[in-house]
Design a protein that fits this description.
- The chain is mainly alpha-helical.
- It has a single domain, classed as Sodium/glucose cotransporter, CATH 1.20.1730.
- The protein has 20 helices and no strands.
- Helix 17 packs antiparallel against helix 18 and helix 18 packs antiparallel against helix 19.
- The chain is globular.
Length: 484
Amino acid sequence: MQWEIVVVMFIYLALNIGIGLYCARLNNQAKGGFLEEYFLGGRGMGGFVLAMTLTTTYISAGSFIAGPGVAYSMGLGWVLLAMTQLPVGYLVLGVLGKRFAIVARKINAVTVIDFLKQRYDSKAVVVLSVIGIIGFFLAAIAVQFIGGARLFQSMTGYSYEHSLIVFSLVVVFYVTFGGFRGVVLTDAMQGIVMFIGTAILLVGVVVYGGGVQTVMTNLSAVNPDLITPFGVKNFISIPWIMSFWILVGFGTIGLPQVAVRGMGYKDSKAMHQAIIIGTVFTGFLMFGMHFVGAIGKAIDPAIKIGDTVIPELTKKTLNPWLAGLFLTAPLAAIMSTVSSQLLVLSSTIIKDLYVSYVNPNPEERFIKRTSLIITAVTGAIVFILSYTPPDFLVWLNLFALAGMESVFLWPTLLGLYWKRANSSGALASIILGSAAYIYCHNFWARPLGTHTIILPLLVALISFVIVSKLTTPPKKETIRAFWG
């Protein structure tokens, strides 16, 4: 264990706890309602903070740990695949954009399910959406807990179990007490750390390997497939690459933890700034981390576990202080994502279920206490699920990602832009889309050579349109509320 790395890491964790305490005080002093402040930060994000929280929420253990681990095995083809994530910020803010923020303010929506409830006026749509969030989010959050614990383990030499305990306590603490504002402020700090850390590691690994030309020559000597667009044994087919534009590009519009960022920004200027900053930021991080993973095979071809590639390369190529600074970057990526997911899950339970259907007018003190308890309990449940980790995180991460898209993409997008969309169409989309995804995931992994998500999204879209056309249109009151 290198003490310099441990010192840097604990200073970083302490900063996150401090931000959580500061934001807890702001939440208590807020002039607006507690729910809007705790779950949306008073809708006051500026452009830079919006860009940071949007991209750091999306960039996670999959991008900093699991993805580079697969690139280590597959080569430069996986770098190409990862770059399909470049337009995430542009798509989410450009497609949802002003309309989502305006409608959310108009109908006083605090969560994505809030939006779905008022758009479709259907308890069944809400309940199925909540089930989708709980089911797929538990898997998604477990990925982040496992990734954070493995990173902590590599950095400190502690056991996996002890590392999981420390990581879980810090994240659950600042999310529980800081709420949305605590999450976005830590996201902003974490985004800066991720950018600087990625630049340091990219330069360090290339210099250690003797320059780009030498690294590429050595990579080809290990296996010529590593420098082709199709990976080892042509694992990455052209239809699969193209379908990733849907999975990690267009489809991200349907991720609740990402889409909710479209409700919380201050004004149009902030949104436009965030689109530019977020796109540049995402592109650099995706290329930098996956390129490091791919050329890592030329630096150290003996790494056995893919999820440890980045920590091992960092310790091998950087001095301890720089290694400590960089290793806070993947930790930041993981913490920013898991914090947002925890907040969405807790807001689903307290806001979308309890307040909407059990007690519409609860006391402010009760809501505060219950929100804190639900967030903490959710973190504890995910801790238990993460105690026995799988060998490779990337596939579990993609399973959760695609599952949420199959539930939320079309009800959110068509509900925002298509007046004829109704509750029957939304129900058909959610049920048939998620069922098709679960079937394909288990029995037809690559339909027609594409990623598993493509066919389920087509099923969900077609069923949504047909059923909406064949059933009763939305109420006039709903059309007035959303388009009046």
